[in-house]
Structures are given as C-alpha cells and as structure tokens.
Design a protein that fits this description.
Six copies of one chain form a homohexamer. Chain A has 287 residues and is mainly α. The first copy, chain A, folds into two domains: 19-199, Ferritin; 210-261, no CATH class. Chain A is 47% helix and 4% strand. Chain A contains nine helices and three strands. Chain A has a two-stranded parallel ribbon. Chain A starts with a strand and ends with a helix.
C-alpha cells in the first residue's frame, strides 16, 4: 500500500511563468514517454510479479518514486500557468495580436477544462492511454520495455531542458534527467542478472521456449527486401549479416527476399455473409 | 517505394478452422505487440532517419518484411474463420448451447463487420493505435523500443503456439518465432555498433547530452521508497545498489526516500477561472 | 511525494480461482468507474489545487489510498488467474468443449499479453483513458464529479459482490464497498462546507459567475420538447416545473419547446475550400 | 432545433430475450457502421452546410430520423437483456457451466456498468468515436461517405437479421433494412443532381479544383506494383487499365511500378535533438 | 422518436468572426464537458430507464433540448470560421507573420477536414468518446453524473464567456449558461425526490445494497495516508473526520493509514506462460 | 509479400522548410482521410477477399502503392522540419515573440517525440486509429468506402495545395492529387462491373439479401421529420421524394414523420442490479 508526504521529492521553481512551456511539459506527464506510463507500468509489473521477489520489490520502489515525478511535473505546469493570469483575457479577445499569438501556443484546455491546472494528457491534449502499460509476465521483455521507456523519457527531458532558460525549470529537469540515468542502469542490472552477467544469454526472449521448435532455416537470416539491384546489402559484411549472432547461438546470414509460400486460396463468400450476388456467382464459378 | 508479390513469404495452412483461434491471432495483427506496429515503427524510423544510412537501409528492409507478416496473419484469420461457416447460423440462434458457447468465444465483428475477414484490431477488438509507433530520432532509444517490440512479440507468438494443435498454425508460428529471434539479434547488433562493441557505452541514452548537466547527487542512487522498517533493501547488496554502475561511469548507491523539495505553494485562484466564491475568499485570506 | 509498504491495505484471498471473474474485476481497475480513474483524479485535483489547503490535503490522502485499491484489485486478478493454469492449454485447444466455453469468457489478453496478470484496461479490454480524469479548478464541480465516481464505483462493486460466491472476494469487496461509502460522505462534506451547511448554496456552479449575466428568461424554466399533445407534462406539477428552485434562488416554470432563433444563414462556400462547382454556383445564385 | 415523441418510430418487440444478441445489436448502435455515427454525421453535414439549402434540409430530416433508430436499437438491447434477469446470478457464480457459457457471450458491462441497459459502444465494448463523423464541406465527398455508411450499415443489419429467429427482432430489422435502402437511394439522388443526371460528372472529387494543376502523366494510369513476372495484369484488358476512364475525361492506361523520385537525402541530425553522438559524428562525416 | 425545426432554439450571431474562438467552442461541442456528451447521456439514461416513468420523460425532454445546443454551437463555429476566408491563404503561406501567427491558433482541421465547419471533437481536435456517456441503471448515481456534467459544462461556458467580446457570442453563452443553471437544478430535484426531501437519504449509493454487508470497521473512517508526522490531520476536527456522517447513518472517525493485509503471495510462473527460465527456477526454488 | 526500393515513387523537394506546413501534412499521413488508412484498408480488403481474384489483385497493387505515398509524405514532413533547426531553440525560449509565435503553430511533438521526424498521427497529433480500416466482405460496400476515402483524400490534398507556395510541395501534391483521380476512377470501375455497366444495379447494398424481406412500406419513402408547418418539403417535388428510385426498383414517396411504434415498456428494475430502493418500489407499484 501507499503513503504520501506533502513535500515534493525535489524542489520545483518557476521564475518566469510560460504557458507555452506548460504545454510542452504535458508530454512528460501524459505522453507515451511520460511519467504516468512508467509509474503504472512499474507498479503493474510489480503487482503481476510471480517472482523473484527482489525484482518485485525494486519495481514497487521505483513505481512509487515515479508517482512523485508526476507530482513535480504537474506542479511545474500549474506554476507555469500562473504567469498567464494577468494578460490572458485581454490577449485572447484580440487586443494585442503578438501576445495573442504567443498565447495561441498554449493548450486552451489548461484554462477551459483545468482552470490553469495540469491534465492527464500529452502536449497535444491527447489523453493518456492505458495500452501503453506493458507487463508481459516475462521479466526480460519487461526490462527492455523499461529501458526503452527511460531512454525515450530521457531524450524527451533533454529536449525540454533545451527549450527553457528558466533556472528553476532547468534545475528540476536536471534532477529528472539524472533519475532517468539511474533507472536505465537499474533495469540493465536486472538484465545482467538474468543473463548471468552476459546480456546475450537473455536472448532470444522468451528464452524458456524450446528454440528447436522455431524454424531453423530463418532464425539467423537477414531478409533483404530491397528490389533495387544497384543497392544490394548482400556482400557488404554488415554486423547483422555476417559473423556470430549477438545471442552467441548461431551465425548471421543474409538472403534476398523471396516467397516461401504460395498465393493464398480462400473459399468463396459464404451466402450468410451477404457479399454481392455477382461476387458469389463468379467466385463459385471459379471453384 | 514498394512492390508486392501475390505469393506469401511463408505458407499458411489451417487444417481445422477455429474461430476462437482467429480471435487470438488478432493480437498479433493489431495489438501493441503486433505486426502493424512493428511494420509502421521500422518504416517511420527509416523515413525519419538522418543517418547513418546503413541503419536506414536495414529498417526499410525489415519494415517491408513485417508487412508480409501482417499478410500471413490476416490470411490465417480468414482461413480459421472458414470453418465457422457451416454451423454459425444455427448455433448463434440458439439451437445448440454447447456449440453456441464455443462460438461465443469468437470476435462477433469477424462476422458482423468483416464478413469473415481480419480486422485492424487486437484480440478484444480494440483498434490499432498509432501512438504505439515509436521513432525518437535517437537510434539507441529506438533500438531498445525495437528489441522490446520483438521480445513481447515473440512472447506472444510462443503463447499462441501453445494454444493451437493445428499443424499448419504451429508451422506458421514456428516461422514467425524464428524471425523474431533474428530481429532481436539485429537490433542488438546496432546497439553493439553504437557502443563500439560494449552495450554499456550506449548509456545513459541520449549519450549526446552533456552528463555534467544532470544532477550529480542522484544519478546513480537507488531510491528506496519502502516505508516498512522490517523489510529494508538497504544493506542487502543488490546489483542495483552497490558496485559499478552498468554504464561503467559511476558507483551505485542507495538512499531511503525523503523529500528534497518543499510543499508546493500555488497562487490563489484567478477570478477569471471561476472557482467557487468561497474558495477564492478563503485562499486570498490565507495569502 | 510518495512511499509504499509491501503489505496490502486489506487482505486479498481467492479460494477458488475464476478467470471469468478476473475479467469482471478489470472494470474496477481500468474502467471509467474504476480505481485508476479516482486515484489520478484526486491526485490531479490536489496538485492543481490553489486553495483552501485543507481540501488539497484530503485529496492527497484519499488519492494515495486509491492507489492501494488498484493494488488490491490487481492482486485479486492475478490470484483469480492462477486457477486457469492447470487446464488452460487442454481446454483452449479444444479437447473439452464445456471447459473451453467457460474459458472463453476470460479476457484472452490476460494470458497473451499479461502472462496471467492484470491489465490497465476495463472488462472488455478497452484501455484506461486519461480523459476521464476531471480536475476543473472549481471545487464544487470537482466534488460532484467525485461523488459520481464513488457512486458509480459503489454500484459496480455491489454488482461484482453479487457475481461471486468466493468468500475471499466477498470479503475484499465488502471492504471496498465500505470505503466507497466513506468517500461519498467525505466529498459531500466538502460540498456542505462550501454551501455553509446547505448544499443549495453551492448552485448554480460556478457560483462566482455573476448570475445576472445569464439569460433571465430561461434559467429556471423546464423545456418540454415532447411533441405529442396526448402526453404533456405541462400542468402535472412536477418538482422541476413548479415551486421554489432547488438552489432557492427562483421559481421553477415550464414551457413547451419553441424556437427562439431564426433559421441559420451561412455564407456561400469559399472558393478556396473546394466544394463542388455546382454547389458554389447554386449557393451564389441564391445570395 | 429538436422535438421528441415518447412513441417509437417503429415497434420493438422481443419474444425471447437473448443477452448475446443484445451484445451484437451494440454494433448497430455504437460501431463505425452504426446509428450514432450516421445521426451525428448527417446533422454535422447539415449544420456545416453552406448551400444549396435543399440538401441541408434533407440532411436535417434524415439525421433526425436516425436518432429514432438509435432509440429503437437501445430499446431492443434493454428488452433482450431482460431475459437475463432470472438466471444471471446463479449462472455466473458457476452453478451451471452450460448456461454460464452462454452468459459468457454477453457483454459484461451491460450488467456491470449499464444495469441491463445499452451502451454508447460497439459489439466489443469499444466506445463510439467522434472521428467517424465525416463532414468535409464538399457535398459529393460527403454523399459518398453517406452511401458507404448506409451500405456497410445495411450489410450489418442483414447479418443481424441472419443471427436471430426472434420474430420481433426480425420485424424491427426488416424496418431498418428498408430504411437503409431508402437512404442509399436518397444520397445517390443528390449525386445524380450534382452530376446533372450523370454520376460521372461528379468526378474527380473535388471537381472545383482546376484539373490541369494535377500531374497529367499519372492521373489515369493504373500502377501495377506486382513484382512477380508470372502474374502480370499488363495486357489483361481490365476495365481499369483500358478504355475510357469512368469520369469520361480520359483513357485508362497501365504502367509497371517504378521510382520517379530519387532516394531521399535528409540533413544530418541536429545537435539540439540529441541523437546518439556516434550517429551525429558519422552522419556529418558523410556529408 | 424525434422531430426537428429548421429554426434554432436561440439566436446565434457573430459580429466579428474569430477562428481561434471557433477552436475554443469545440470544447463545448465534443469535449468531455460538452453537449454531445450530455445529449447522448440523457437519452441513453431515458432509453435504459426501467422506471419511474416521470424521470424517463424528463430525460427525453432534456436530452432532446441538448441536441439543439449542439446545433447552436456548431452554427457558432461555422460563423466564426467565415471571417477566416478572406485572409487565410495569404497568411498561412507566410506573407504576414503576425496574421499567420494568429491563424496558427485555429484548428487546422477546421479547414483541412471540415471545409470551415465544426467537428465532433474537442478544442484540441481529440474526438468525442462514447465512454463518457454514463448510464448506470441507478438513478441517484446517474443524477450525480448529470449534476457534474452540468457543473463542469457551466464552468466551461463561463470561461468561454470570458474569452470573447463579441456581443452575439456573449448573448448565446448567456443563454447556454442559464440553461445549465436550470439543468443543475432539475437533476437536484430528482435527488431531492429520491431522498424524500433530504439529499442525505440518497447515500450511500446504491442504497438498495444491504449496508450490513459492507465492512463495518472502515465505512465511516477517514484514512490519513500522510507520512509526515509534522502535518497530521488527526485531531484537527475536520468535517470529514468528526461528527455525524453526511448520510446521517454513523459518526465520522479518522485513522492513520496502515496495512490490514499481508504482503501478497502469488504462485510461481506457469511454464506455459514462458517467463525467463531463470525466473521459473528461482521462483520454484523459493516455494 | 512485399519488396521495397530505396527510391521514392515521385520526387519530394522542399525549397523553404516550414514546420507549420509539416504539421498540416500530418493530416494526409495519419488522419482519417490519410494514406495510412487507405494503405491498410486496401490491403485488408485484399487479404480478406474471397473473390473475384481480379479485385484482390488490384487491391494489392494499389495498397502497395499507397505505402509509397506515406513514404513521400513522411519525407516531406522531415524536410519541412529541417528549416526549423536554426532558430528553434532561440525562439521557443522566448527571445523573439514573432518567430516564437510562428513556431507555436508547429506540432511540438515533431521535436519532443520525433526529433524532427514524422508521426503516425493527424494534424492535431491524434494518433491513427485502426477502426478507420473498412473491409466488410461486400465488394460494393467496400468500393463506396474506397471512393469516399479517395474523395475526402483528394479534397484534403487540394486544400494542402492551396496552403503552400513552395514549388516542390506543389509538385508533390500535384502528383498525389492525380493519383487520387485515378483511384476514384478505378474503384468506380469495379462498381460499374458489379452493376453490369449500370451503377444502379449495385443497390441496395448488399444486393444479395432477398429484398422482399425488407419492410415494403418504408423502403422508398422519404421521412420528413420537420415539425414546422411553414417549411414543408412535402409537395416540393424533390428528386428524392418523387419519380423512379435511383436503384430503378421502385418509386420515391414522402411521408411526414409519425410514430409507427408504441411507447416502450421495459420491465421494472431487477433487484440484483441495485437500482435505488425508491425506484424499485415505485416501478413495481406501477406494474
């Protein structure tokens, strides 16, 4: 279960409120690379965990921390919107076109729906979507999803860092960027453990499926679908076409794409599905 | 640009059509771990690529291959629905409760909307969603998203393999599982190249942001948010709390969660946002 | 910021695992009347709060409690899915039609995507949607949204209670139903305070907008749109057509629906919007 | 503006309530081919209409009629769910596996969220989505969307007709199927008028754009992307590769797909977008 | 069933067309607090109503009225977009940066997709979503949803009123604000009737569930999750921690949050769900 | 299966990069009238096709071509965003309000999430949605959906053409507009074939349902729902109220809307659905 503290995990200061930046921060709250997603993702992975227990514990710890990051960002949105209060009415009703234009870059729902508060949505107002919460029951697959989330999240945070010169916002983002560094590292630590010190043992994921059941002709073959004979990759000795496979279990090869199956043959339309009569007649006359 | 061949990449046979299994296959077509997502994800990463060119080429090759996988799975859905034709009407109108019950497990939209054909949706009929297509402009972040997609995709395919005893379906899935093995490997090969042979050089992602700008107090510290003094992880020497960080750039440490920021103080409600009068009065009397 | 405890807020026991009931429980996790929604709704209302502080504190307290309810329900889903392990493979591959039929009522993504774990989705697999998180900046409007959420949530919980005879599940639901009772009461307590002891003072919401600016002819008039002269409500003395208005500020009246505005007249199609030529010609010839 | 009558447009009778059929009917309420979509689509087209007025009037008439169809279908759902009342509790708690299995085919939200009432969702519980409401400002484009909506809607209704043997439901569907016949015809009548009696004059839509601005080399050429030399369509004299074009303005031709553009060349990654360092270095060294 | 009148319920005038304001009005059409939602919500509640009949009648009346409000707002959007016609092309192609900037605040889909007409979407272009239509089968729960919808709707309308100085728009909004006043009152009138004159009898909702089945230890206890010992609410005598409960059925109490359940124990991973081998081995070795 | 060529189908040049135009182009990529939709729609129709084979072949050809159009547009987005690189940082941080304002019209996720690359979303950042992919199993219904898609798509392309003065963009759009011309024609060619040269034989769709089963009283009757006696359409001799029906099978007639069904009577609330007690009592006392 959960507890809270009225204090923030890290201080949030805004020297010069900027409603446009408030809109950009929403991507880090409710976007696919944002904090609601990682918070729920780590917690669902913990709640669904069937062992080992030490991973469940870590997921609960970090999922709980992410909740504090949503709080910091929502607070930053609210503080950036405060600056909008003085001029908003005058500008939107059109008295000053330049200021109006700047205001035009804010999310209008910050005022209309939120009364100058944060939303559970991204920088375009698209709502957070629960489909982004990945919890597969396979720890390695989950950890790659987590590394990806922290990577695209850190990319986002560095871009936000670039787009502000407010010292308070830069300080807050410096904190969040640092936490993403740690989180990338800790999910990799799990992968290292799962691979007994060598990430390659982790693959192919899931590694509990008997690999001899997979088609042995195509499992380490790069399929080149490029039709242009003047730009073949065949023979170019790429890392993914030659040499030992990354999982250490085979050799990479390459092939030009070609059909291994026939043209599909479906049965004629069922009468009860009400295709057009002509369709049915012709399809049956072919059979 | 793109070309097609009327033949399939690999043969698709269904010996005993099964409309329930057709529903399950939809997850591999239109689910978050399905083929429409990886097809579009690799192609958008290619189209957005600003170099190196060899990664763009590979992404185009494999994105094009994934289109053929959607085709195989859609064909498998259509073939599995054929078996439903004989009995469907009788059973749904209620003459045979057991058969009706089995039919109950199919996606009714396979008949109602698709006329016994595949949909761009998951196993619950939830439509494919473009938000799943990740293309960040940072190759390492993208590759982790790709490894995750192929990992959760291979997990899904092995579970589908478990849920059928149709030899044709097992054969098709064996092919797709093998391709997932290759694709996991090839995205890892890019990460290996990006890290000059050591995946750890890749991190923290993005590695082009000056790391000295991130908060140095918290970037390699595991935050333990567990409030229960009887189950501390502090002192337990986990891989993510002690020793060299996975990226090789620091030492892991651990701290108990504690606020580093004050309780937030927002301004009082703006009159123009029309909070309740009592709110405004009390908030202002506090200020 | 937030802390957690590895223990649950209340015990979760499942005596006879039931994957169909696991599916039903998802509505209470990721549905519009579920716990993710109230958790995020109360927390966003807190984070966006501009006073009074005591409401912010209460919202933080209860938002944090709701996180523990998601945890309880996710745990209940995972425990209900355990029972599926023994028979699942045999049944879905079709050896036992009755058991297969029962299994047919489970959410297939609980296995395919979740590996027998909970999802951030409703009972039909539709993902949680951030648009449900209401935080308007007007405390009274927010409290009515909260009372509604706890009312539809308690309705849902009582229906789930009806659909199980597992003593553990009944016990857990009895706890959650009780908490909904408290939460309905506490949001009403805020409304009582806002209305100085009389809920009617709260209305019309927002009560800070000068009511004289609203159209005085129609603000306490029930509009009867029923066209059938044989079933008029006019003259039937309903509570909403006669007597003092509920907010105590006027008298209810009733009117038959009739237009107060003219037929709308839009300008002709703009050339640059490329309507059909015939449209443009005829529209202009009318003008 | 709008009025209502407590009576239905056409009678709705259910002799043998069937909760599975209630679920199927939802597709005709909240699905992409359902009645909420056509109701809103025709009304938005009317409200956005800039002439001719007689099309606006017709759209208002029929949009209003569609509202009555939603009402009939929602009533049919509620009546089909009544039959579930007697046995529901016993069956879902597991006492009778066969009945439970049949119940398993109902939408659980009909009980959990709706208390045995209809939802604004499709047969899989996926909510109605406003993106389906097409109103382009070009009457011909809109009419084709309307013909499509009434075509897929009539296909759906005939399939529902097939799936019930309840005389009341068959009678209601016979009414709705007939109305779809009329509505297909009336939208075609508009197209006939727009084309001065010949549908071909309507095309290409929009016909107000100066056609000489479109690329004259490719506007009546069928592009054959098939790579397999053994199955060319070239030379097969299809209706879309030879003869006068359907719009009567040119001759159809055919070409094998081939690039008309070069390989795209994007600039190197911008420093401020934080790609990986290696990417940036290599991309710039190529430039 | 339904009828229409070509005249509007109330006049809609725009003196100075403003495409930015057209965008803002969309929130009142297709947003969660908008008119499509209340229209469908009241109608579905009516169609699903199983008594008393007088509530069904009122819901039909007001649902029908709301349709006329969508019409007024869609007309207002179309009229506000007319002003964009003269300058649009010049400005977006960049000849005048200031005007271009102002145009930048409009919804581009008003032109691209709608040809200067309204959309079934909110102020950010996010489509209307059927999940917002609440109809629970419990009249009290439904009425609270309705009061909330009219409260957040009136908040929105007052903010729109603030953002325009067009006399026609102010007049239209004054009408809509007035109707929201009435609608708040009429839903409260139903709650008053349901409570026999005292709203408190309504709670806890649903009041038909035997309250003795809910956990008696926690149903009137405020759970304080705040971990900070320096800011306890315990002892502060809030309205929600002391005194008679609002529903009049008990006394409020308060407790500090503490676990009432154990740490959850899930079974080990099922082999058929293909967790990583190491996971399975370690989890089983613990058991 | 599918192949690709690194070259584009047609050249994509941008002389003056314009991030606002990049946003507008997104509508043609990920909007409901965009290229991802038609690409997947034609391919799913092909994969689900049960004959005639020549339609399947054509759908594969054109679906494959559409993939190349997504590629062209994504490339155009990336090239239009290049121009943003020089000034972006300076402007968004607020040093130049006019430039900042122009930047305000771009999609911030093009930078934040895409690193200056295209997204699978529309001009407002709303993700592509798989529900738009129509494949009914009835060729005529599908073809009308295809004609509609190419009509609204061509309308969109002509509007984009209007909004740019970049010669490269105008050239690319001229190509795409031309292809839409061809595609409208080719889907109409199928309808012509299905109707044996007369489109009217196609209707009513599906034409394989025995038309005598539809209600013969209402299938060619226009229902006039207009309540205003001063603006009747009755007697006005519209094309849809008099004369031969468009499908040639009957005569159009007109009727004023009137109920053909009684007021619906639902049973009282089920006890187990937990309506309010008062509801249940009153509803039963009426029965």
């Amino acid at each position: 279960m959960f507890y809270h503290d009225k204090k923030l995990q890290y201080k949030v200061r805004v020297e010069k409120p900027n409603p446009q930046f408030a809109r950009l921060l929403q991507q880090a709250i409710g976007g696919i690379e944002g904090e609601i997603r990682v918070c729920l993702q780590y917690l669902f992975q913990a709640w669904n965990s069937r062992g080992p227990v030490r991973y469940r514990d870590m997921l609960l710890d970090t999922g709980t921390e992410e909740m504090a990051h949503i709080e910091m960002l929502a607070t930053a949105v609210a503080l950036n919107l405060e600056g909008a209060s003085g001029d908003l009415v005058d500008t939107i009703v059109g008295k000053d076109p330049i200021v109006a234009a700047i205001m035009g870059g804010m999310d209008p729902r910050h005022y209309l729906s939120g009364g100058m508060g944060a939303l559970a949505a991204d920088a375009n107002g698209v709502p957070f979507n629960g489909s982004w919460v990945v919890s597969t029951g396979n720890t390695a697959a989950d950890m790659y999803s987590n590394v990806n989330a922290e990577s695209s999240g850190r990319v986002l945070a560095t871009r936000l860092y670039e787009l502000t010169d407010d010292p308070g916002m830069k300080d807050m983002l410096s904190f969040l960027i640092a936490r993403d560094t740690m989180h990338q590292n800790q999910w990799l630590a799990v992968l290292e453990e799962l691979g007994h010190g060598d990430l390659r043992n982790v693959h192919p994921i899931p590694n509990s499926f008997p690999q001899e059941k997979e088609n042995q002709d195509v499992n380490y073959v790069f399929v080149n679908t490029n039709i242009d004979p003047s730009s073949p990759s065949v023979g170019q000795n790429r890392r993914w076409t030659h040499g030992k496979s990354i999982d250490g279990k085979s050799q990479f090869r390459e092939m030009k794409a070609q059909p291994m199956g026939p043209e599909p043959q479906l049965g004629p339309p069922m009468p009860s599905a009400y295709a057009q009569t002509e369709q049915i007649v012709e399809a049956n006359s072919k059979a």
